Structure formats: C-alpha cells, structure tokens
Amino acid sequence: MPTLLRIKNVSKYFPGVKALDNITMDIEKNEIHAICGENGAGKSTLISILGGIYPYGSYEGDIYLKDKKIEFKNPKDAEEAGIAVIHQELTLFEELSIIENIYMGSQKVKGLVIDWNSMYEESQILLKKLKLDDLNIFTKIKHLGVGKQQLIEIAKALVKKANILILDEPTASLTESETNNLLALLKELKKEGVTCIYISHKLDEIFEVADRVSILRDGKLIGTKLINEVTKNDLIKMMVGREISQMFPKRKISPEKIIFEVKNFTVFEEYNPTKKVVDNVSFNLRYGEILGFSGLVGAGRTELMSSIIGFYQGKKEGEVFLNSEKVNINSPQEALELGIAYLSEDRKGAGIISNLTVRENITIAFIKKFATFFHINKESETLKALEIIKELNIKTQSPEVKISTLSGGNQQKTLIGRNLVSIPKILIMDEPTRGIDVGAKQEIYSLMNKLTKQGISIIMISSELPEIIGMADRIIVLHEGKFMGEIENYNHDTNQEDIMYLATGIRGGKGE
Questions:
Q1: DSSP 451-481
Q2: Which of 32, 157, 297, 378 lies most in the core, judged by the most C-beta atoms within 10 Å?
C-alpha cells in the first residue's frame, strides 16, 4: 500500500528528557497501524505532534502527508488536514446533547442560521453506522456510558471528514462487549478508507485489529513488523528490552489466620437509597494472602470496597471485623488509622494530585507524621519520599518534580507508595494495573508479592482474568451485587471459564 503519512527523523526534547529520538515511521494508506511501548516510551508525545498539540518548530524533523510536508500550528490545522486524535481522556461537553457534541466546531449553516435539519439527518446516519441508532440525539452526554461516549468522539471525527484516526488507549475504560464493538467498527472504517493509528497496552486487541505494529522504547523506534510475523512474546521483548518469561511471580502460601472479616454487607445506590448495589455479601481475608475480587462491570466490587473504607457515600449495612474486633469506619482517614489503605481505580480522578510534586503526593495522607509545632519537617518528609522512590523503583528525576510529568506506571507506583508511608495491615487495590504497560505491571506484581511476605494482606479487584488467576490465592466472584462463589486458587491454575460462569450469574458453574 502507498505511504499516507511519513514521520521522518522526528525528535522532541523536554527539560532534561529526550522524549523522541530520531523517529522515522511510515503509516500506509488504509491500514490499522498499532503503536506499542511502555509508559514513557514516547507514544503520547508522537501523537501530540501528529495532532498539532506540539506545533511545528517545537520538535526536530519533518512530517509528510501524501508526500507533502505539513507544518501544523495547532490541532485545528491537523483536523483540517484530516487527522483526528481521540485521547484517552475524552473531550466531550457533558451538559450538551449528542448532536451538539458531534458538530461542535463543525456546525452546518444555511444562510445565517445553523442548519439543524441537515445535521439531524447526517447524525442519524452516523449513529446507525456506529450502532447507536437507539439513542435520542438530544440526550445529554452525561447520561451516556463511557463506551458510547467513545463512539461519539469517533462520530465527531467522521463529521470532520477525518481519514486518519488516532486512538490513544481507547478501551482502557470499556467493557469486553464495548471493546468488541469498537474493534469491529475500526475494521468497518478501514473498509471505507479510514486509516487508523491504534495505541494500546492490550496485546490481544492489537493482534485482533492491527495490520502492522511499531514498537517504541525510551523514545526510540525499535522496529515495525507485520502483525502476522510476531508473537506476543516478541512484542514484549521489544517493548521492555528483555523477555518476561514469568509475568506473574511465583507465590505459594498456606491459609493462615483471618485478619479481616465482612459479614452481611449491603450497599445502596447513592442517589436511590432503595436500590441495592451490593446485596448481603460476606467474606474474610487471611494474613499475608492476596484475595481477588472478580466480576463484570456493575458487579458492585468497587462500591463494596469503597463503602467498607468510608469513601462511598451511599447507605450501607453490615459488620466489619479487624483482628476479630468489630470496627465502624466512616472515612478513608479512619481506615488508614486502623491500618487499612485503599488504592482507587480512578488514578487521575481520586488518586494523584496533579499540581503537587512526587514527594507531596507520597506523603500527603500521612503529613502529620512530619509535622512539628510550627511547620512540616521537609527534610524528614523528603527522606521518606526518597526511601519510597527507591523501594518501589519509581522513575523520576527528583522527588520535587510534578507527578503529572511521570508515566502512568510510575504515577501508580507513587500512589502505592503513599499507602506504604505508614505500613498498613491491609491494602485494598482496585484495578492496580489499569492503563499501564507490561513492564510496569510485572513490577507491581512483584511488589505485591513482596508486601505479602512482609505480612500485609491484599484485596485485589481486577477485570483482567489472567491477572486474577496469576496473583490471587482465593477468588471471590460477584454478579449484580451478589456473592456468587469463592474459588481456591492456591496453585494459580483456575480455569477462566469457571470464573466467567459465576460472573454471568450461573452460581453452579458449567453444570447449571
């Protein structure tokens, strides 16, 4: 196929960092081209250049579209050239309707007024193509799920006649069915002549949808391969510079004494106190084990854990026991004081404080530990932050840089470090590896093993079945807020189907 987009000798510098190092890459017409790499490899920097966010002159090298050199000054220039970037963090206006979002900046006019009839007809055709024709186009965006919002972003790009669609981690927050719908749509768009650059950590998706794949590492292009010429292990080795033969570190424990117990726990919807989102769930956690919670979206896993530690605002009923003593936890701070730490699934919304430094993000939950009568002992605080940075191998130039400058994996390790400033008895980790690359995942798995050897008990919520099976010693499965079953997994050999039967509401498994 002819080259549609050529990236030639592109380099990009930030203070103290070479984010892209002499990248040369061709994107062929009418292909789905995947780009892989660890967090910090340079993927986001590259697409920010292609999308006009980093204007011409702020980087070295050249970009050619259909053999014509392009010099974008801003994202509008990229859009007019037919390049649309759909970022991981969606850019929709929640209080506006579907049709208003689709045509934002691209309104059709008739004379001096907006041509609503024309936009209505065209948007109906678009929504049908995206399999969203059951939606009312005057529905506000805030009433749609993330999967449908993602498709509305694509509709915006198609309205602008984009022929190059760049998607950055598009399925990070999607369910399995929503992911399948999106991948099927990209294949259809390819048939219609749309070229796609697809950035993802999820190798299964890349092998499902991509024609070719390019690997970045430390700002350099390691290679571009036809997808049928490589294996997952090949890609992992190219991404991290080494083979990861044992993704999940070996762990073998024997059941020990119960440290934590939850009995008959029920949680009600925050804005509808008559509707249960968790219904009469009981479980226990043993000393030094990893207890996994599995289930489909809407199973109530996050609501259960966040309400136990006093974060979720809905009404709750039930009993919680720590070391056989009944406790009543009304806030995350009370949970921390009892030795129960919580790592939220929402790293950006409820985790990092982006305008603070790495040091401040690590110590903020325990800032009283560093306080004197009149001020914070910054020297003591810095020493603790450096200790955490070293222990967790957080890649940062200094504890004084803004956490927003770190890669996703290093931000996640920083948040884990926040919970280790004062060693907890229990660490609840909700989707601990969401949106981070394969190398950072392995580091977090190894850290989890290390923590359990130190006597910390871990509750892990995960939507990734290989992760649950590879790490959890026991697995509890929820379905629509109800306890469906518990699976012993001490040999880490549970069949994925056994979990899925329970997760879909079949209590007895395959036999029912």
A1: HHHTT-EEEEE-S-HHHHHHH-SEEEEEETT
A2: 32
Instruction: Give the separation between CA 263 and CA 87, rounded to whole angstroms.
Output: 42
Burial status of residue 1 (CB atoms within 10 A of its CB: 0-12, 13-18, 19 or more): exposed
* Three-class secondary structure of residue 445 per DSSP: helix
Q: Which of 240, 273, 290 is the last residue of a domain?
A: 240
Res 511: pLDDT: 42
Strands (E), 210-334: 212-217, 220-226, 258-269, 272-286, 290-294, 316-322, 325-327
Do 31 and 159 sit in the same domain of this protein? yes
Residue 438 lies in a domain: no
Short-list 35, 461, 395, 472, CA closest to 210: 35
Measured CA to CA in angstroms, residue 49 lies from 19, 34, 56, 148, 369 at distances of: 12, 17, 8, 27, 44
**CB of 147 within 8 A of CB of 297?**
no
- In the block, tokens 């804005």 appear at 271
Range with lowest mean pLDDT among 372-376, 451-455, 497-501: 372-376
Q: Which strand ranges, in their side-by-side order, compose the sheet holding 340-343?
A: 340-343, 426-430, 457-461, 290-294, 474-479, 482-488
* 328 and 358 within one domain: no
The domain containing residue 224 runs over which residues? 3-240
Beta bridge partners of 266: 317
Are residues 222 and 134 both part of a single domain? yes
Nearest by Cα to 419 from 442, 388, 396: 388
The rounded distance, in Å, linking the Cα atoms of 293 and 302 is: 10
Q: pLDDT digits over 86-118, tens only?
A: 887 777 888 888 888 888 877 777 777 888 888
Statement to judge: residues 374 and 479 lie in one domain: no
Question: Which of 319, 259, 246, 321 shows the shortest CA–CA distance to 289?
Answer: 259
Based on the fold, state whether residues 75 and 181 are members of the same structural domain: yes
CATH number of the domain that 142 lies in?
3.40.50.300
For residue 313, is it left (φ>0), alpha (ψ between -120 and 50) or beta?
A: alpha
> Is residue 65 domain-shared with residue 184, that is, in the same domain?
yes
Within a domain: residue 442? Answer: no
Residues 218 and 260 in one domain: no
The alpha carbon of residue 43 and the mean position of all alpha carbons in its chain are separated, in whole angstroms, by 15
Separation of alpha carbons 408 and 212, rounded Å: 25
> What are the residues facing 357 on neighbouring strands?
402
SS3 61: strand
Q: Say if pTM beats, i.e. exceeds, 0.85.
A: no
Whether the Cβ atoms of residue 413 and residue 446 lie closer than 8 Å to each other: no
Q: What is the DSSP letter of 57?
A: T
